[in-house]
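Is this the right way to post structure tokens for a design question? Let me know if I should format differently. Anyway, here goes:
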């Protein structure tokens, strides 16, 4: 699992600071979280390619998180036969996309499935062969969703010595057992995968949590994630503004991540009022609360190691 930081800004794109968006790659498959104005530019710079982008998750209907969607949809349409696209997001997203497609006369020839959160929606928003994506409402000035992406569990570690003891010769039968299939040895004995595999191992967990005040729901979403991108619009000196605008300070973001025992915290969605040199203060404050915290950097690629 690799995370690509496309931007770390909040509110508006600025010279040298693009809007908050993260792409995640799992075994070649790409998942995009939010697409504000201009997101297609860093997407191209990082050579992510659109062929394997089949899912976009949208946090909320504020301009700095969705105005880049039309461009991304058109760009994807330039490929021959791009295949269907799923977009997850808040109520109202389907109407937004429908209207913008009609008003801009966008010619999109591939199917788009839009799945909106609703009160009785399952916590599991999306599932494919590689990951589950969960969504959870946060607390912002408009309805806003946080996302948690979990790789599926992996089979336990294979014990070749044990397999040989059970009469399995090295070769294709080893592979079948590793893939969880029951096999028959040349002597006619049946061997179950559980006899030669250790306990199942968990996959990697990533959280994308932007535009919220500190809340219980955020801590639950962050629960022991391997990596979490958490909004931190303000420095603690501006806590009053954070409260009023329904955002967090660096200290609040780090506090939530520390409470949830997140492994690695990356702050993003920084207010345009802070200059680049002030980002160090965000990092210092966060690190005084969560030892493995930093401000995400644009263009940064973070490989998340397997937990075992
Ligand atoms: Zn925002
Ligand atoms: Zn917002």
């Amino acid at each position: 699992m690799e995370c690509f930081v496309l931007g770390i800004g909040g509110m508006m794109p600025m010279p040298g600071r693009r809007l908050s968006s993260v792409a995640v790659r799992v075994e070649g498959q790409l998942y995009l979280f939010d697409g504000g104005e201009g997101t297609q530019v860093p997407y191209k710079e990082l050579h992510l390619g659109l062929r394997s982008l089949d899912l976009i998750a949208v946090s909320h209907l504020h301009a700095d998180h969705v105005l880049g969607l039309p461009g991304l949809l058109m760009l994807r349409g330039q490929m021959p036969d791009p295949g269907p696209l799923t977009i997850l997001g808040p109520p109202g997203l389907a109407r937004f996309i429908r209207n913008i497609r009609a008003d801009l006369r966008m010619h999109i020839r591939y199917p788009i499935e839009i799945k909106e959160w609703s009160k009785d929606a399952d916590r599991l928003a999306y599932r494919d062969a590689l990951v589950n994506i969960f969504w959870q409402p946060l607390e912002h000035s408009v309805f806003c969703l946080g996302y948690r992406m979990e790789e599926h569990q992996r089979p336990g570690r294979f014990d070749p010595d044990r397999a040989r003891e059970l009469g399995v010769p090295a070769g294709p039968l080893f592979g079948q057992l590793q893939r969880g299939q029951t096999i028959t040895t040349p002597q006619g004995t049946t061997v179950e995968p559980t006899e030669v595999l250790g306990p199942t191992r968990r996959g990697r967990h990533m959280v994308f949590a932007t535009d919220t005040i500190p809340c219980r729901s955020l801590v639950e979403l962050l629960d022991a994630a391997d990596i979490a991108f958490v909004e931190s619009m303000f420095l603690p000196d501006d806590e009053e503004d954070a409260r009023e605008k329904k955002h967090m300070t660096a200290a609040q973001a780090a506090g939530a991540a520390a409470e949830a025992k997140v492994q690695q915290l990356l702050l993003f969605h920084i207010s345009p009022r802070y200059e680049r040199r002030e980002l160090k203060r965000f990092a210092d404050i966060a690190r005084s609360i969560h030892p493995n915290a930093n401000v995400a950097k644009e263009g940064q690629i973070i490989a998340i190691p397997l937990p075992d």
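Format looks fine. Someone answered above. Worth noting: The pocket of zinc ion (ligand 2) is lined by residues 60, 62, 140, 211 (CB under 6 Å). The chain has a mean pLDDT of 96.
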